[in-house]
Amino acid sequence: MGRSVSEPDHQSKRRNTKPPGIKLIEHTKNSNISFKSHQAIVLIVTFLAYTSYHASRKTTSIIKSALDPQTQDETKQLVSSLQRSSALSWFLGTGWAPFDGSNGAGLLGDLDLAFLFVYAVGMFFSGHIGDRTNLRLFLTIGMVGTGLFTSFFGVGYWANIHVFYYYLIVQMLAGLFQSTGWPSVVAVVGNWFGKSKRGLIMGVWNAHTSIGNISGSLIASYFLKYGWGWSMVVPGLLMVVVGVIVFMFLPVDPESVGLDREGVEPRQGEKGLTEHLLGLNSGSENESAVGFVEAWKIPGVAPFAFCLFFAKLVAYTFLYWLPFYISHTAINGEYLSNAAAGNLSTLFDVGGVVGGILAGHISDRLDARAITAASFTYCAIPALYLYRNYGHISMSVNIILMLVIGMFVNGPYALITTAVSADLGTHQSLKGNSKALATVTAIIDGTGSIGAAIGPVLTGYISTRSWSAVFTMLMLSAFVAGLFLTKLVVAEVTAKCLDLQLSSVVEEV
Question: Sorted alphabetically, which InterPro entries does this protein's record hold (predicted)?
Answer without folding.
Answer: MFS, MFS_dom, MFS_trans_sf, SLC37A1_2, Sugar_P_transporter
